[in-house]
């Protein structure tokens, strides 16, 4: 493959592609709009022996350095088609760059059950499956209705897999180890009444707005909730990382432009919203970890992904 087949932008500031709006410059940058372009971008990076990172909505990604020595691929591959349909259910193929919010609304409008509780979840389908994003009231995962998917490996070869391959668990998919890229996913959705789905979506959104900071620059929950064993060790009633951070006296604490939300302690918000310095974030994250460790003996682990 010839590397001149794609044109990338050089020394590109990606802050507007990260919902935390943190300053970072990628050596190379490209937006892709089709499966072909996504595959080509991966092959290009492989050919040039440079690292690459696929960004969906950038709502669970942050940085630790102000530069990324590689190619950032922003996935805008948006496509969906019905594969098969009966009176009871529909199998639908969706591309990985599909915006979650659009998909949730469209599925509700069609009366297709499975995504309505994710109303208000930012990002793309690709990011949602990679993270196995979830809603806890009631418990629903973005992967619940997944039947099969097409991936590309790190050198750009396609591979068809079924749900088992992903080894989904809380906040985890096998892609976090293989670093393969999702191209398309087939979901199987049951047909339900539209008002029922609208009601569920509304409930989720109301709960979200009540418990989370809304309309601010953030990347959602920064740390993973703790395990059952850790909960026992910490001698607390909940697995919520936000609870531990709150009880460690960190709500409202800030370094530079980054602040622990006063509404939900597991949310770090960027109060200036433009190009804030990653060094301040690193310091705040390390302060949170130290204080929680000191009070509860627990090492918090990041839920967010670092672009490094
Ligand atoms: C206000 C707010 C609320 C949130 N609420 C929730 C919530 O309720 N539940 C929850 O679980 N999360 C929540 N999040 C976190 C985040 O929105 C989700 O994890 C979301 O699904 C991430 O999607 P994304 O496309 O933005 O991922 P990105 O941040 O773009 O990427 C995340 C990871 O996925 C990888 N990735 C992206 N696309 C692909 C692909 N095509 N193939 C392979 N890997 C890929 C990236 O390389 C990266 O490692 C919230 C975030 C915000 C800002």
TrEMBL record:
Its main location: cytoplasm. Pathway: Cell wall biogenesis; peptidoglycan biosynthesis. It is found in: Cytoplasm. The gene is murB. GO terms for cellular component: cytosol. Its cofactor is FAD. Its EC number is 1.3.1.98. Transmembrane segments: none annotated. Keywords: Cell cycle, Cell division, Cell shape, Cell wall biogenesis/degradation, Cytoplasm, FAD, Flavoprotein, NADP, Oxidoreductase, Peptidoglycan synthesis. Belongs to the MurB family. The keyword rRNA-binding does not apply. The keyword DNA-binding does not apply. The active site is at residues 221, 303. It comes from the Bacteria. GO terms for molecular function: FAD binding; UDP-N-acetylmuramate dehydrogenase activity. Cell wall formation. Residues 22-192 form the FAD-binding PCMH-type domain. GO terms for biological process: cell division; cell wall organization; peptidoglycan biosynthetic process; regulation of cell shape. This is UDP-N-acetylenolpyruvoylglucosamine reductase. It catalyses: UDP-N-acetyl-alpha-D-muramate + NADP(+) = UDP-N-acetyl-3-O-(1-carboxyvinyl)-alpha-D-glucosamine + NADPH + H(+). SUPFAM superfamilies: FAD-binding/transporter-associated domain-like, Uridine diphospho-N-Acetylenolpyruvylglucosamine reductase, MurB, C-terminal domain.
């Amino acid at each position: 493959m010839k590397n001149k087949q794609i044109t990338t932008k050089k020394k590109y500031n990606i802050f507007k592609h990260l919902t935390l709006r943190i300053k970072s410059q990628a050596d190379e940058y490209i937006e892709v709009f089709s499966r072909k372009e996504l595959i080509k971008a991966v092959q290009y990076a492989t050919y040039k022996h440079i690292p690459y990172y696929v960004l969906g909505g950038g709502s669970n990604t942050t940085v630790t350095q102000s530069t990324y020595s590689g190619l950032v691929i922003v996935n805008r591959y948006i496509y969906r088609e019905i594969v098969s349909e009966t009176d009871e259910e529909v199998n639908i193929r969706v591309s990985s760059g599909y915006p979650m919010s659009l998909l949730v609304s469209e599925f509700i409008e069609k009366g297709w059950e499975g995504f309505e509780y994710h109303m208000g979840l930012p990002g793309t389908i690709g990011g949602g499956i990679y993270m196995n994003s979830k809603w806890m009231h009631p418990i629903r995962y973005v992967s619940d209705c997944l039947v099969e998917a097409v991936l590309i490996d790190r050198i750009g070869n396609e591979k068809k897999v079924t749900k088992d391959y992903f080894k989904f668990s809380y906040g985890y998919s096998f892609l976090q180890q293989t670093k393969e890229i999702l191209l398309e996913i087939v979901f199987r959705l049951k047909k339900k009444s539209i008002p029922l789905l609208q009601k569920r979506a509304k409930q989720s959104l109301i709960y979200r707005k009540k418990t989370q900071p809304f309309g601010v620059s953030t990347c959602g929950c920064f740390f993973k909730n703790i395990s059952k064993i850790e909960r026992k060790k910490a001698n607390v009633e909940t697995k919520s990382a936000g609870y531990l951070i709150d009880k460690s006296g960190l709500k409202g604490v800030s370094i530079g432009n980054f602040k622990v939300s006063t509404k939900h302690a597991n949310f770090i918000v960027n109060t200036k919203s433009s190009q804030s310095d990653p060094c301040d974030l690193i310091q705040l994250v390390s302060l949170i970890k130290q204080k929680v460790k000191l009070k509860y003996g627990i090492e918090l682990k990041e839920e967010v992904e670092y672009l490094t």
